[in-house]
Amino acid sequence: MARPDQPLRSVPLHSVGAPPTLAETVAALATEFSQTAAEHDRSGAFPFANFDRLAEAGLLALITPRRYGGQGGGLQDATLAVGGIARGEPSTALVLSMQYLQHASMEERGWPAPLAERLGREAAAGVSLINALRVEPELGTPARGGLPATIARRTPEGWRVSGHKIFATGIPILSWLAVWAVTDEAEPRVGTILVPANTPGIRVVESWDQLGMRATNSHDVILEDVLVPLDHAVDLRPPEAWRTPEPIKSAWSALLIGALYNGVARSARDWFVSFLKTRTPANLGAPLATLSRMQDAVGEIEALLAVNAQLIASAARDVDDGRPPAPTESGIIKLTVTGNAIAAVETAVRLTGNPGLARANPLERHYRDVLCARIHTPQDDSIRLTAGRLALGL
Length: 394
Fold this sequence. Notes:
- The chain has helices at residues 22-43, 48-56, 75-88, 90-108, 113-125, 247-278, 292-320, 327-352, 354-357, 363-371, 380-392; strands spanning 130-133, 151-155, 158-168, 176-183, 190-196, 202-205, 219-228, 233-237.
- The chain is of the alpha+beta class and 394 residues long.
- The longest helix has 32 residues, at 247-278.
- It is globular, with a radius of gyration of 22 Å.
- It starts with 21 loop residues before the first helix and ends with a helix.
């Protein structure tokens, strides 16, 4: 496993000396990505060049098994990478987090070995990414129950998949689509059909125009009688088999999302601290940092982010050690970390006034981005409801 203080293989970021560690590689890339983050936010253009750099650094295959040419990392590595990259450009980090989530689940969910190896070797060799397409206009997120409207029809030549997906994060660069569908069998099964993104019958509708995380290009995708081989049905189960949350997958999802938005909050914190040190109002005659009110606010932010760091690190270590938290606990960690991240940025915005909301400064962008933490499954109300019912024995 590529620990933060150990060299990362195949990372051509320095020409001489020892190879950089994972932490050093991520920090260097985050700094580089931050230079164009504001422009990607303004234009909504997808950050293709960032993924070329991630591929060069070996980070697209960070958690891919070594036998497939990957780095063989775990959740500690993944949260470090996603949280670090998010400090520079969070839309890039979100697409990267989805790559890690899918690669982490291939073996756990028993994907056919040839397909898992193919995706792993492609990620290790260049820019090859995968994400799940689950959400639909009528259904919303499947996490709240219900069957998808996307149908997979079994034919002699393979599965023919038709449906409409929304919020397909990173679709401009994806090589593989893990499509959530229901079969047309006498006893329908629900699950994942693996679809190459260049298969005929796939159409992208450029619908993404959101307040935050604008460069993710999470557009709609229409699948019209898309043909894939029968063995690309990588994880189909009876509907009732999906009702029990899976501890490992729940932990990976919760911690990657938490790490991402914690990274956004840390960037906001850095700008806020710099602003307080350099802003010297004429009536004060000293930097704002000398005011006890501002010192207290920074302390409040530090406390929130310190709690986040400990929660993410300890839970990720537990998962890597084979002791994943219960799904309810993972949800609570996500709720706490993302809530703390939002509160930290809100504090900075409240105390900076107009400069904090000026588009010339990055804080307003960090604020718009961090608010997107609330949309990720499971949402806060579902997490609290589940935890409350469990505590009440209902």
